[in-house]
Amino acid sequence: MCGIFGSLNIGIADQADEVFKGLFHRGPDEQGFVIKDNLELYHTRLAIQDLSKSGQQPMFHQHLSIVFNGEIYNHLELREKYNLYSESNSDTKTLLLLYELLGISMLEELDGMFAFALYDQRQHQLILARDRAGKKPLYVYNKGNALAFSSELNVLSQLFAPEVNYSSLAAYLYLGYHYRKATPYQGVTELQNGHYLKIDTQTTEQTLVKWFDIGACYLNKNKLSYADTLQELDARLQLVVKRRIETSDRDVGSFLSGGIDSGLITAIAAAHTHELKTFTVRVEGAYDESLFAEK
Protein backbone atom coordinates (compact mmCIF):
# COMPACT_ATOMS: atom_id res chain seq x y z
CA MET A 1 0.00 0.00 0.00
CA CYS A 2 1.37 3.40 -1.02
CA GLY A 3 -0.05 6.90 -1.01
CA ILE A 4 -0.34 9.24 -3.98
CA PHE A 5 -1.31 12.89 -4.28
CA GLY A 6 -1.16 15.46 -7.03
CA SER A 7 -2.32 18.95 -7.90
CA LEU A 8 -2.86 20.79 -11.16
CA ASN A 9 -2.78 24.60 -11.22
CA ILE A 10 -2.51 24.63 -7.42
CA GLY A 11 0.82 25.29 -5.70
CA ILE A 12 1.09 22.83 -2.81
CA ALA A 13 4.88 22.67 -2.36
CA ASP A 14 4.83 24.86 0.76
CA GLN A 15 2.34 22.39 2.28
CA ALA A 16 4.26 19.27 1.29
CA ASP A 17 4.72 18.27 4.93
CA GLU A 18 0.95 18.18 5.37
CA VAL A 19 0.59 15.97 2.30
CA PHE A 20 3.25 13.54 3.48
CA LYS A 21 1.82 13.50 6.99
CA GLY A 22 -1.62 12.59 5.67
CA LEU A 23 -0.21 9.82 3.46
CA PHE A 24 2.46 8.50 5.83
CA HIS A 25 0.44 5.54 7.13
CA ARG A 26 0.08 4.31 3.55
CA GLY A 27 3.81 4.47 2.79
CA PRO A 28 6.32 4.88 5.64
CA ASP A 29 9.43 3.71 3.74
CA GLU A 30 10.10 6.66 1.41
CA GLN A 31 8.69 10.01 0.37
CA GLY A 32 9.12 11.89 -2.88
CA PHE A 33 7.63 14.63 -5.03
CA VAL A 34 8.25 16.39 -8.30
CA ILE A 35 6.98 19.53 -10.05
CA LYS A 36 6.43 19.20 -13.79
CA ASP A 37 5.07 22.29 -15.54
CA ASN A 38 1.84 23.19 -13.70
CA LEU A 39 1.56 19.73 -12.12
CA GLU A 40 2.82 18.49 -8.76
CA LEU A 41 3.11 14.76 -7.94
CA TYR A 42 3.65 13.32 -4.44
CA HIS A 43 4.24 9.75 -3.28
CA THR A 44 4.76 7.84 -0.04
CA ARG A 45 6.12 4.34 -0.53
CA LEU A 46 5.55 1.01 1.13
CA ALA A 47 8.31 -0.98 -0.56
CA ILE A 48 7.19 -4.45 -1.68
CA GLN A 49 8.72 -4.81 -5.15
CA ASP A 50 12.27 -3.73 -6.00
CA LEU A 51 13.39 -2.56 -2.56
CA SER A 52 16.33 -0.66 -4.06
CA LYS A 53 16.48 3.03 -4.95
CA SER A 54 15.36 2.05 -8.46
CA GLY A 55 11.85 1.62 -7.08
CA GLN A 56 11.56 5.17 -5.75
CA GLN A 57 8.65 7.35 -6.84
CA PRO A 58 7.69 9.54 -8.54
CA MET A 59 9.23 7.47 -11.32
CA PHE A 60 10.24 8.72 -14.74
CA HIS A 61 10.89 7.41 -18.23
CA GLN A 62 11.71 9.92 -20.95
CA HIS A 63 8.67 12.26 -21.16
CA LEU A 64 6.56 10.16 -18.77
CA SER A 65 6.13 10.54 -15.00
CA ILE A 66 4.06 8.38 -12.66
CA VAL A 67 2.95 7.96 -9.06
CA PHE A 68 1.52 4.50 -8.48
CA ASN A 69 -0.24 2.68 -5.67
CA GLY A 70 -0.83 -1.06 -5.91
CA GLU A 71 0.69 -4.14 -7.48
CA ILE A 72 0.72 -5.53 -11.01
CA TYR A 73 0.98 -9.27 -10.55
CA ASN A 74 1.71 -10.15 -14.17
CA HIS A 75 4.18 -7.36 -14.92
CA LEU A 76 7.13 -9.72 -15.42
CA GLU A 77 5.07 -11.73 -17.90
CA LEU A 78 4.21 -8.50 -19.72
CA ARG A 79 7.88 -7.57 -19.92
CA GLU A 80 8.57 -10.89 -21.59
CA LYS A 81 5.53 -10.64 -23.87
CA TYR A 82 6.43 -7.17 -25.18
CA ASN A 83 10.21 -7.47 -24.90
CA LEU A 84 10.50 -4.68 -22.34
CA TYR A 85 13.77 -4.17 -20.50
CA SER A 86 14.81 -2.22 -17.44
CA GLU A 87 17.44 -2.65 -14.75
CA SER A 88 14.67 -2.11 -12.21
CA ASN A 89 12.29 -5.01 -11.58
CA SER A 90 9.61 -2.62 -10.31
CA ASP A 91 6.08 -3.03 -11.64
CA THR A 92 5.87 0.77 -11.73
CA LYS A 93 8.68 0.84 -14.27
CA THR A 94 6.83 -1.80 -16.28
CA LEU A 95 3.82 0.51 -16.44
CA LEU A 96 5.90 3.34 -17.88
CA LEU A 97 7.47 1.08 -20.50
CA LEU A 98 4.12 -0.46 -21.35
CA TYR A 99 2.41 2.93 -21.67
CA GLU A 100 5.13 4.12 -24.02
CA LEU A 101 4.38 1.11 -26.23
CA LEU A 102 0.60 0.68 -25.96
CA GLY A 103 -0.77 3.90 -24.54
CA ILE A 104 -3.74 3.72 -22.19
CA SER A 105 -4.90 0.47 -23.82
CA MET A 106 -2.30 -1.16 -21.58
CA LEU A 107 -4.96 -1.26 -18.86
CA GLU A 108 -6.53 -4.27 -20.55
CA GLU A 109 -3.28 -6.19 -20.05
CA LEU A 110 -2.96 -5.60 -16.32
CA ASP A 111 -3.67 -8.18 -13.65
CA GLY A 112 -3.55 -6.33 -10.38
CA MET A 113 -4.91 -3.74 -8.00
CA PHE A 114 -3.94 -0.16 -8.65
CA ALA A 115 -4.57 3.54 -8.69
CA PHE A 116 -2.11 5.76 -10.49
CA ALA A 117 -1.49 9.17 -12.02
CA LEU A 118 0.58 9.21 -15.21
CA TYR A 119 1.74 12.45 -16.82
CA ASP A 120 2.70 12.59 -20.48
CA GLN A 121 4.68 15.82 -20.70
CA ARG A 122 4.90 15.64 -24.48
CA GLN A 123 1.11 15.44 -24.90
CA HIS A 124 0.33 17.68 -21.90
CA GLN A 125 -1.94 14.92 -20.66
CA LEU A 126 -2.58 13.60 -17.15
CA ILE A 127 -4.26 10.22 -16.72
CA LEU A 128 -5.81 9.05 -13.45
CA ALA A 129 -6.73 5.36 -13.51
CA ARG A 130 -8.23 2.79 -11.18
CA ASP A 131 -8.35 -1.00 -11.23
CA ARG A 132 -11.30 -3.14 -12.24
CA ALA A 133 -12.64 -3.75 -8.73
CA GLY A 134 -11.61 -0.43 -7.22
CA LYS A 135 -9.41 -2.04 -4.57
CA LYS A 136 -7.14 1.00 -4.48
CA PRO A 137 -8.83 4.35 -3.72
CA LEU A 138 -8.52 7.60 -5.65
CA TYR A 139 -10.41 10.83 -4.94
CA VAL A 140 -10.53 13.90 -7.17
CA TYR A 141 -11.09 17.54 -6.15
CA ASN A 142 -12.23 20.08 -8.74
CA LYS A 143 -12.58 23.84 -8.38
CA GLY A 144 -12.52 26.08 -11.43
CA ASN A 145 -9.45 25.27 -13.49
CA ALA A 146 -7.74 23.67 -10.48
CA LEU A 147 -7.66 19.97 -9.70
CA ALA A 148 -6.16 17.72 -7.04
CA PHE A 149 -6.28 14.00 -6.38
CA SER A 150 -5.33 11.75 -3.50
CA SER A 151 -5.43 8.22 -2.13
CA GLU A 152 -6.79 9.75 1.07
CA LEU A 153 -9.97 11.78 1.28
CA ASN A 154 -8.72 13.40 4.50
CA VAL A 155 -5.75 14.96 2.72
CA LEU A 156 -8.04 16.78 0.29
CA SER A 157 -10.26 17.84 3.18
CA GLN A 158 -7.38 19.26 5.21
CA LEU A 159 -5.78 21.12 2.30
CA PHE A 160 -8.85 22.59 0.63
CA ALA A 161 -11.59 22.53 3.29
CA PRO A 162 -14.42 21.66 0.86
CA GLU A 163 -17.97 22.21 2.04
CA VAL A 164 -19.92 19.26 3.37
CA ASN A 165 -22.34 17.64 0.93
CA TYR A 166 -25.33 17.03 3.20
CA SER A 167 -27.41 15.26 0.57
CA SER A 168 -24.55 12.83 0.04
CA LEU A 169 -24.31 12.25 3.78
CA ALA A 170 -28.04 11.62 3.99
CA ALA A 171 -27.80 9.06 1.19
CA TYR A 172 -24.89 7.41 2.99
CA LEU A 173 -26.85 7.11 6.23
CA TYR A 174 -29.78 5.61 4.31
CA LEU A 175 -27.80 3.22 2.11
CA GLY A 176 -24.85 2.47 4.36
CA TYR A 177 -22.37 3.37 1.62
CA HIS A 178 -21.54 6.18 -0.80
CA TYR A 179 -23.21 5.54 -4.14
CA ARG A 180 -20.86 5.39 -7.11
CA LYS A 181 -18.62 8.47 -7.15
CA ALA A 182 -20.22 10.34 -4.22
CA THR A 183 -18.20 11.55 -1.21
CA PRO A 184 -19.12 13.59 1.91
CA TYR A 185 -17.74 16.76 0.28
CA GLN A 186 -18.85 19.11 -2.45
CA GLY A 187 -16.45 19.26 -5.37
CA VAL A 188 -14.83 15.96 -4.40
CA THR A 189 -15.65 12.70 -6.20
CA GLU A 190 -14.28 9.20 -6.11
CA LEU A 191 -12.89 7.93 -9.39
CA GLN A 192 -15.01 4.84 -9.98
CA ASN A 193 -13.57 1.39 -10.39
CA GLY A 194 -12.74 0.39 -13.95
CA HIS A 195 -12.52 4.03 -15.07
CA TYR A 196 -9.78 6.42 -16.07
CA LEU A 197 -9.88 10.21 -16.23
CA LYS A 198 -7.95 11.94 -19.01
CA ILE A 199 -7.06 15.57 -18.33
CA ASP A 200 -5.55 18.11 -20.70
CA THR A 201 -3.15 19.97 -18.42
CA GLN A 202 -3.25 23.10 -20.58
CA THR A 203 -7.02 23.51 -21.02
CA THR A 204 -8.04 21.37 -17.97
CA GLU A 205 -10.60 19.64 -20.20
CA GLN A 206 -11.54 16.28 -18.68
CA THR A 207 -12.71 13.05 -20.30
CA LEU A 208 -13.98 10.17 -18.16
CA VAL A 209 -13.70 6.72 -19.74
CA LYS A 210 -15.10 3.43 -18.50
CA TRP A 211 -12.47 0.91 -19.53
CA PHE A 212 -13.88 -2.13 -17.73
CA ASP A 213 -17.48 -3.34 -17.47
CA ILE A 214 -18.05 -6.21 -15.07
CA GLY A 215 -21.40 -6.90 -16.71
CA ALA A 216 -19.61 -7.99 -19.87
CA CYS A 217 -18.02 -10.82 -17.92
CA TYR A 218 -21.42 -12.47 -17.63
CA LEU A 219 -21.99 -12.39 -21.38
CA ASN A 220 -19.49 -15.17 -22.03
CA LYS A 221 -21.54 -17.78 -23.84
CA ASN A 222 -18.91 -20.50 -23.76
CA LYS A 223 -20.53 -23.44 -22.03
CA LEU A 224 -18.09 -25.72 -20.25
CA SER A 225 -18.84 -29.10 -18.79
CA TYR A 226 -18.77 -29.49 -15.01
CA ALA A 227 -15.39 -31.25 -15.18
CA ASP A 228 -13.92 -28.60 -17.47
CA THR A 229 -15.25 -25.85 -15.20
CA LEU A 230 -13.52 -27.38 -12.18
CA GLN A 231 -10.29 -27.73 -14.12
CA GLU A 232 -10.45 -24.12 -15.32
CA LEU A 233 -11.20 -22.85 -11.81
CA ASP A 234 -8.29 -24.80 -10.36
CA ALA A 235 -5.91 -23.50 -13.03
CA ARG A 236 -6.94 -19.90 -12.43
CA LEU A 237 -6.64 -20.19 -8.65
CA GLN A 238 -3.18 -21.69 -8.99
CA LEU A 239 -2.11 -18.89 -11.33
CA VAL A 240 -3.36 -15.94 -9.31
CA VAL A 241 -1.85 -17.19 -6.05
CA LYS A 242 1.45 -18.02 -7.76
CA ARG A 243 1.64 -14.53 -9.28
CA ARG A 244 1.07 -12.84 -5.95
CA ILE A 245 3.84 -14.78 -4.29
CA GLU A 246 6.42 -14.50 -7.05
CA THR A 247 6.10 -10.73 -7.48
CA SER A 248 6.80 -9.90 -3.82
CA ASP A 249 10.28 -9.05 -2.57
CA ARG A 250 8.99 -9.18 1.01
CA ASP A 251 7.92 -12.10 3.19
CA VAL A 252 4.53 -13.50 2.20
CA GLY A 253 1.73 -14.28 4.63
CA SER A 254 -1.80 -15.63 4.62
CA PHE A 255 -4.79 -14.95 6.84
CA LEU A 256 -5.97 -18.41 7.85
CA SER A 257 -9.38 -19.05 9.38
CA GLY A 258 -11.18 -22.38 9.58
CA GLY A 259 -13.02 -21.78 6.32
CA ILE A 260 -12.63 -23.42 2.95
CA ASP A 261 -11.56 -20.28 1.07
CA SER A 262 -8.59 -19.27 3.24
CA GLY A 263 -7.56 -22.90 3.67
CA LEU A 264 -7.54 -23.44 -0.08
CA ILE A 265 -5.54 -20.29 -0.80
CA THR A 266 -3.06 -21.11 1.97
CA ALA A 267 -2.58 -24.63 0.63
CA ILE A 268 -1.87 -23.33 -2.87
CA ALA A 269 0.48 -20.65 -1.53
CA ALA A 270 2.41 -23.19 0.53
CA ALA A 271 3.15 -25.12 -2.65
CA HIS A 272 4.92 -22.08 -4.11
CA THR A 273 6.98 -20.96 -1.11
CA HIS A 274 8.63 -22.65 1.86
CA GLU A 275 8.50 -19.51 3.99
CA LEU A 276 4.76 -18.85 4.16
CA LYS A 277 3.58 -17.28 7.40
CA THR A 278 -0.03 -17.68 8.48
CA PHE A 279 -2.05 -15.50 10.83
CA THR A 280 -5.15 -16.61 12.73
CA VAL A 281 -7.34 -14.63 15.13
CA ARG A 282 -8.63 -16.37 18.24
CA VAL A 283 -11.89 -15.18 19.80
CA GLU A 284 -13.90 -16.40 22.73
CA GLY A 285 -17.13 -18.23 22.09
CA ALA A 286 -18.73 -20.19 19.28
CA TYR A 287 -17.23 -18.07 16.49
CA ASP A 288 -13.66 -19.14 17.25
CA GLU A 289 -12.22 -21.08 14.29
CA SER A 290 -8.64 -21.38 15.53
CA LEU A 291 -8.94 -25.12 16.19
CA PHE A 292 -9.92 -25.70 12.56
CA ALA A 293 -7.11 -23.43 11.39
CA GLU A 294 -4.54 -25.46 13.33
CA LYS A 295 -5.56 -28.57 11.42
Automatic annotation (TrEMBL):
Keywords: Ligase. The keyword Ligase applies. Its EC number is 6.3.5.4. Pathway: Amino-acid biosynthesis; L-asparagine biosynthesis; L-asparagine from L-aspartate (L-Gln route): step 1/1. Residues 2-202 form the Glutamine amidotransferase type-2 domain. CDD domains: AsnB. GO terms for molecular function: asparagine synthase (glutamine-hydrolyzing) activity. It catalyses: L-aspartate + L-glutamine + ATP + H2O = L-asparagine + L-glutamate + AMP + diphosphate + H(+). Pfam families: Asn_synthase, GATase_6. Signal peptide: none annotated. It is an enzyme of class 6 (ligase). One of its GO terms (biological process) is asparagine biosynthetic process. The keyword Ligase applies. Belongs to the asparagine synthetase family. This is asparagine synthase (glutamine-hydrolyzing). It comes from Arcticibacter svalbardensis MN12-7.
